[in-house]
Fold this protein.
Amino acid sequence: MKYLLSVMQPEAGTPDPDFLEQVMRDLDVINRELKESGSWVFAGGLHAPSTATVMQLKDGEVGATDGPYIEGKEYLGGISIIDVEDLDAALGWAGRIARATTLPIEVRPFYDEH
């Protein structure tokens, strides 16, 4: 099964550079181990919500607006897509990412592709 692991980033400022460097090293290890296990599909970080453009249908026309779709104190900061046996395996990987980043990780399964 494929799972989306969403990194929930607080809107507060940038973390200390030394802390961020350690987080990136830890995430590199986790991503390497995911690849070696055959479970890695994709991972990436996202720019701040202020860089977003929202396309939306209104009154029969599709229009673009700047900024995030939803304002909040947290936003989607990055994602990993993994392909593992079951929810327990996904939660194990998500727990490792949560430990490395100290951020909440939301785990959601994709619909069955078959």
About this structure: The helical segments are 17-37, 87-101. The first strand starts at residue 2 and ends at 10. Residues 17-37 form the longest helix (21 residues).
